[in-house]
Design a protein that fits this description.
309 residues; alpha/beta; 6-stranded parallel β-sheet; 10 helices; 26% strand; elongated
Length: 309
């Protein structure tokens, strides 16, 4: 997959089959669109291309927006790359770009720069300045500028019955099973292991302290989760706590993972943590002994869960 960091840098000698969107989560609904896009391109000896944007348009157009995204931009690239796409164009979204009229966007971007032959798009897609143009306008522009428009019907989208917003809500409620069902994969966090206060090792549960650089990444509901990761080429399971460590009166939100059957130095390594199951809410214990007892219960539940995989 070729990656372009702006529309202006895109080059292709072939015609393109295009879709447009933020593709946050690259969930099962998005995957359906990408598969249709790639199939179209192969049938026409054209190149498949996704035009996406970063930062997210809402971050630019809405004052003080606190939208949290399912993927960092690097995670989005990685997920789309696995789908067999030819081209991914990540255009910097700014207010100047948002002011393009619908026809300016179609003629100057899709036709002149991206060499479009066909666009595959949802029936409810809106575009152009203030998002005033709709699918009917796009079909008219297609006739004018000689490209096809294939609508993804309401029925197809409703069959998937999924949206990035629904997934965000599920994660914020700790419903990891539903979120993973909608995503078609386990929700994951990517970060660097940094040195913490090493309190876990004092009670027999050493943890890796995960720092996520991107402040727009959605962190699921505070609590304890069963997770898996690939560490030094080995699949490793563990328990992850998202919270403030109230038993130790920490106060600041942290993400800490205790890996089972793994003992190696991970400091300053970038790792990916896939979240499999929500175990329980974070709670404050009256003593460290009670916390340790609960962690042993959590460990047993985790081992039982792993045994069924």
């Amino acid at each position: 997959m070729k990656i372009y960091n702006s529309i202006n840098s895109f080059q292709s000698t072939k015609k393109t089959i295009i879709t447009i969107g933020t593709f946050d989560g690259v969930h099962i609904g998005h995957q359906k669109i990408v598969e249709k896009l790639i199939e179209n391109a192969k049938n026409r000896n054209a190149e498949s291309a996704i035009l996406t944007f970063f930062p997210h348009p809402r971050m630019v157009l809405q004052d003080q927006t606190e939208i949290r995204l399912l993927n960092t931009i690097d995670e989005r690239i990685s997920l789309l790359e696995k789908k067999g796409l030819d081209n991914l164009i990540i255009h910097p979204f700014d207010k100047a770009f948002s002011r393009l009229t619908a026809e300016e966007f179609v003629k100057e971007i899709l036709v002149d720069q991206l060499n479009i032959e066909k666009i595959v798009i949802g029936y409810d897609h809106r575009f152009g300045r203030n998002r005033t143009a709709n699918i009917d306008d796009l079909i008219e522009f297609g006739e004018k500028y000689n490209f096809e428009v294939e609508q993804i019907s309401a029925q197809e989208i409703q069959e998937a019955s999924v949206s990035s917003t629904k997934i965000r809500t599920a994660l914020e409620e700790g419903n990891i099973a539903l979120a993973n069902q909608y995503l078609g994969y386990s929700y994951f966090l990517t970060g660097v292991v940094k040195e913490g206060k090493k309190l876990g090792r004092t009670i027999g549960f050493p943890t890796a302290n995960l720092k996520i650089e991107e402040n727009y990444k959605l962190i699921p509901k505070e609590g304890v989760y069963i997770v898996e990761s690939n560490l030094n080429g080995k699949k490793v399971y563990g328990m992850m706590n998202i919270g403030t460590n109230p038993t130790f009166d920490e106060g600041l939100l942290s993400i800490e993972i205790h890996f089972l059957d793994f003992d190696a130095d991970l400091y300053n390594q970038k790792i990916q943590i896939s979240i499999l199951e929500y175990l329980r809410a974070e709670q404050k214990f009256e003593s460290v002994a009670l916390l340790k007892a609960q962690l042993n219960i959590d460990k047993n539940h985790t081992l039982q869960y792993i045994a069924k995989l």
